[in-house]
Write a structure and sequence with these properties.
This protein has 291 residues and is α/β, with parallel strands linked by helices. It contains 11 helices and 12 strands. The strands form 2 sheets. It has a 6-stranded mixed β-sheet, sandwiched between helices. It is globular, with a radius of gyration of 19 Å. It starts with 9 loop residues before the first strand and ends with a helix. Bound molecules: nicotinamide-adenine-dinucleotide. The site of nicotinamide-adenine-dinucleotide has 25 residues, from helix 5, helix 6 and helix 10.
Length: 291
Amino acid sequence: MEQRIKGSTGLLCLIGSPVGHSGSPAMYNFSFRHHGLDYAYMAFDIREEEAEAAVQAMRLLNVRGFNVTMPCKNVVAGLVDELSPAARIIGAVNTVVNDQGRLVGHMTDGGGFVRNLREHGVDVKDKKIVLLGAGGAATAIAVECALQGARAISVFNANDPFLDRARTTAETLAVEVPGCQVKVICLEDQKALRDEIASGDILVNATSVGMKPREDATLIGDVTMFRPGLVVADTVYNPLETKLMRQAREAGCQVIGGKGMLLWQGAIAFKLYTGLDMPVEEYQKEQEKSV
Ligand code: NAD
């Protein structure tokens, strides 16, 4: 790495807190090396109240771009000069590109989800999606699926503060993407969940349920809700196969895990920064070597 860094090396980085565990520096630096690009990627621990000063520093240092993680995603959306359509509707960014001094904010999580499905032969266009969750990941997925032509999205959330967020997103989508029918239903209504899944094409878990260390948890308690032909996608990537995925696979569904979403949201950001494709396969091989 040291031999690579020169006076001309351009900087990219991640801001948020905590960032010490992030896989982004390894992934982007591998990809810069692969393409022979004169860039380096670092992670900086930035709290929400420090985000404004951090964005000013990004401008001063003339970084090529930066990724944004929690808790800074929403506040940074209000500090950049321009937003992509998805980032504007969501009100949050995870990628900011410095376009000759103009900071343009994007949200690539939803695009990463849709791309991962496409890599598995599944297109969201004209599909009915049953979405569990209304947090950051779920909102990005709902907005991107609507923008990419999903016919309907039925959002189920527990009776917690995220339920109101789901209603706000549904109201915004009714104005921004009127061709997509968005419903919001409380997760306690298990009959509605059964009916929506029965008429749905793709079931998505975008809640934290099923994540380590609670791998024994799933929001689909009744496995008769699954049927062959239903696509079941999880955003959780640790473990690689969740209980939801295992039970859906056993019931004959096509299952798609969250690892690819993580990779593709990064690949979309890489393309925005560099105009080049991230060496996804090569990076996956590199990761397998280090396991
Ligand atoms: P968040 O805190 O913004 O949202 C949490 C969501 O989980 C809410 O909808 C909440 O109602 C729901 N939830 C939490 N506990 C629940 C319970 N016991 N019962 C029912 N619902 C419950 O979190 P987020 O950032 O949106 O992350 C959600 C999931 O998405 C996590 O598992 C995360 O790992 C995953 N994620 C994956 C990627 C990826 O690239 N694969 C990216 C972002 C997030």
